[in-house]
Amino acid sequence: MTVAAEGSPPLRAKRAAAGSLLQSEQAQGMALISPTLLYALVLLAVPVLVVIAHSFWTQDYLTIDRTFTLENYRLALTEPIYRDLLMRSLYISLTVSFFTVVLAYPIAYFISFHGGSRKSLWLFLITIPFWTSYLLRVMSWKVILGYGGVLNSGLMGLGIIDEPSTAFLYNTTAVILTLTHAWAAFTILPIFVSLEKVDRTLLEAATDLGDGPVRRFLRITLPLSMPGVIAALLIVMIPTVGDYVTPRLVGGKDGVMIANAIQAQFGKAANWPLGAALSVTTMAIVTAMAGVTVFILRWAARRAR
């Protein structure tokens, strides 16, 4: 009876189905991505989980107390200094994202629609400044905005001032300007790729129907390139909130951001749980802000059509 049962048609059908499942394209695809997925989980998900776990603990100098508590989140959300730093960071992030996209869109538009056979050359030229170190570019802006500025040199040459001024340095404006330049290429490229996918025949049809350049742009080009705009905004918005090198070098006390406070908690302050709570709070707020931004832009794109 056992041999008969094993050789029964229903059992053979189940075995054949299992064998075909293992040999299917889905199974082969999962086998291919499994190492990458495991790699991502180990290097991305596990550190985030460790940070989240630390945010519910407390620390007394070098001793970690693993008793569950929400005190760190209370400090992160109610302490004026952390709240102000977070609000400033969000303001800087949104401002930098807006300016980079506004400045990058015309450049990407020109390359896509008027670059002709020199599109690759234009893109190559755009990336040249980014061959140098990020730190070197920030330091260059520190020189430009501070002691080496053209305005400083002109005023000193005219005898109006005796020493170079740092009025353009160590403030929020300096941080915004430096970050806008630092992330410019990362916004030009996704917008360019999105514009390249715009069907030119739609623009020709709109012209035949009487639409002018502005109307064609607002009703066809801009809505169809919105995926690139959204990608550019997210590429800039998320990392700039966590930037602490630029505020430290060109921001001064008026340009410090939340990342500097987080770095201090993991450094000299030696309060990892509070630093973890600040990190988690910032991640949650930035995620919500990015989601709202994407929703609004998609809604605007649908309305424009």
- The CATH superfamily of the largest domain is MetI-like
Write the CATH architecture name of the largest domain: Orthogonal Bundle
Question: What shape does the CA trace take?
Answer: globular
- CATH top level class name of the largest domain: Mainly Alpha
What is the number of strand segments?
2
End-to-end Cα distance: 69 Å
* Percent in strands: under 5%
What average pLDDT do the residues reach?
A: 84
Please tally the helical runs, counting DSSP H or I stretches of 4 or more residues. Answer: 16
Helix vs. strand class? mainly alpha
- Largest sheet, strands/sense/barrel: 2 strands, antiparallel
Give the H and E element order: HHHEEHHHHHHHHHHHHH
Can you list the strand order of the major beta sheet?
1-2
CATH topology of the largest domain: MetI-like fold
- Helical content class: over 70%
What is the CA-based Rg, rounded? 27 Å
Number of domains: 2
Unreliable stretches covering 5 or more consecutive residues: 1-6
Membrane topology: Multi-pass membrane protein
Domain ABC transmembrane type-1: 86-293
Subcellular location: Cell membrane
Organism: Neomesorhizobium albiziae
Helices and strands in order:
Layout: H1 2-6, H2 9-22, H3 25-55, E1 58-60, E2 63-65, H4 71-78, H5 80-114, H6 119-127, H7 134-145, H8 150-157, H9 172-182, H10 184-196, H11 200-208, H12 213-224, H13 226-241, H14 245-251, H15 258-266, H16 272-304
Antiparallel strand pairs: 1-2
Helix pairs in contact: 3-16, 4-16, 5-9, 5-10, 5-13, 7-9, 7-14, 9-14, 10-13, 11-12, 12-16, 13-16, 15-16
Subcellular location: Cell membrane
Transmembrane segments: 37-57, 90-108, 120-136, 143-161, 167-195, 216-238, 276-301
Domain ABC transmembrane type-1: 86-293
